[in-house]
Amino acid sequence: MPTLLRLAAPNVLVMLAQAGVGLIETYFVGKLGTDALAGMALVFPVVMLMQMTSAGAMGGGTASAIARALGARRRGDADALVLHALVIAAVFALIFALAVVGGGRWLYTRMGGTGAALEAALLYSNWVFSGAFLVWLFNTLSAVIRGTGNMAVPAYVTVLGASVLVPLSPLLIFGGGPLPGLGIAGGAMALLGYYLVGSVVLAAYLWSPRSLLRPSLAHLRLRWFLFKDILRVGLVGMVSTLATNLAIGVTTALVGGFGTAAIAGYGTASRLEYLLVPLVFGLGAPLVAMVGTCIGAGQRERALRATWIGAALAFAMAETIGVWAATFPRAWLSLFNSDPAMLEAGALYLRTVGPVYGFFGLGLVLYFASQGAGRLAWPVIGNIARLAVAVTGGWLALRWEGGLAAVFAAQGAALVTYGVVNAWAIAGGAWFGPVGWPRSPAGLQQRLPQA
């Protein structure tokens, strides 16, 4: 517990700041009207897919590979993994840019976008995904540093970057002095500026004498087994991330049948669910390093002990936020817009799904811990089960004319499924079979498993 909390404290701070970046942007875009807010709601699941893929899936694979290499005292491989992670980031950034810029209109139309909301979505999306490499670069460099157990540097960089974004975002959106207002495109430009400056600072630290890693020209030779060490965790994690965001995207499309205000309400309310992702990541990222290092050193019991402590903390944190949101939904929604129809749809979502947010936090933190263990099969199954329940339940709700309340009830059931499947699997020995815990810390040193 002390180690996890010490590592998590700066990481929760960095994740709060990073979540704040998105909330700041949403707040100012909301001042442009319901169409602009709905346009951002259409793009948001796709942006979060890129964020969660780069920071959570591939970022987790990178941090896990580096932590396991350091735990096994393979320092040269840990140094070489930096370049391999950056190559992977460049490739995936290009894929995202080509897919979303080229297919954005088709995608957002299928999600229910029409008229001014669709045009706002396309304008914002084209700017953000044209700069996809900056997002991938920032999150990859952060993951590399976190893999060494250093949570403080990414925290400082993100918090300072957010403090710059606060004045920059409204300046570019609304204009000031000789600078004309750029509307929703200005929000995207401010966001990319944040990632650019942050990437420069992270890279400067990584190649400085203070860094634990020493990437150099000697590591320019690419080796498949190092790519494999990242990708075997990252690619499986991508399936889980895709399922999470597909569930949100499909729900957005289902809600789209109830009008633009419903999309804006659901999109604004579900941002609170997305806010849980970086908060839980604040605990999950240290777990990747702790579990990976412990398993690399052969200490399976210690890895499981850290995992369940993290799971309890994540459940409590997410459930507290969910219950608050269900009790006072308008306190959150009214920050962004005052349209009565938007507020009604968003409040319905939070009252329905908020009380089960703890299960989402539980499933997500166990996903991160599984990254550290290099065992992601069950977290992926849990996320696919969540997707199946959300999509099937939402479709049946519309078919049986259950309305928005029934669609949102299916999302709540999906979150419970996700948490229960992940917890059940790990408790049942999904990583390496049943492992007994010692009763005292000394036992951790005496009961190492045989090779």
Structure commentary:
- The protein is mainly alpha-helical.
- The chain has one domain.
- Helices cover 82% and strands 0% of the residues.
- The chain is built from 16 helices and no strands.
- It has helices spanning 2-30, 34-71, 75-110, 115-130, 132-147, 152-174, 184-206, 224-256, 260-296, 300-327, 329-333, 340-353, 357-373, 377-399, 403-427, 441-446.
- Helix 3 packs antiparallel against helix 5.
- The chain is globular and about 60 Å long.
- 58% of the residues are buried.
- The model is unreliable at 437-451 (pLDDT under 50).
- Keywords: Cell membrane, Membrane, Transmembrane, Transmembrane helix, Transport.
- GO terms for molecular function: antiporter activity; xenobiotic transmembrane transporter activity.
Radius of gyration: 21 Å
- Shape call: globular
Biggest sheet, in brief? Answer: none
What's the domain count?
1
Residues in helices, as a percent range: over 70%
**Poorly predicted regions:** 437-451
Mean pLDDT rating: 82
User: Structural class, judged by helices and strands?
Assistant: mainly alpha
> How much of the polypeptide forms β-strand, as a percent range?
under 5%
One letter per element, helices H and strands E, the order comes to HHHHHHHHHHHHHHHH
Distance between the termini: 27 Å
Number of helices: 16
Beta strand count: 0
List keywords for this structure.
451 residues, mainly alpha, 82% helix, transmembrane helix, xenobiotic transmembrane transporter activity, MdtK-like, MATE_fam
Helix and strand arrangement:
Elements: H1 2-30, H2 34-71, H3 75-110, H4 115-130, H5 132-147, H6 152-174, H7 184-206, H8 224-256, H9 260-296, H10 300-327, H11 329-333, H12 340-353, H13 357-373, H14 377-399, H15 403-427, H16 441-446
Helix pairs in contact: 1-6, 1-7, 1-9, 2-3, 2-4, 2-5, 2-8, 2-9, 2-13, 3-4, 3-5, 3-8, 4-7, 5-7, 6-7, 8-9, 8-14, 8-15, 9-10, 9-12, 9-13, 10-12, 10-13, 12-15, 13-15, 14-15
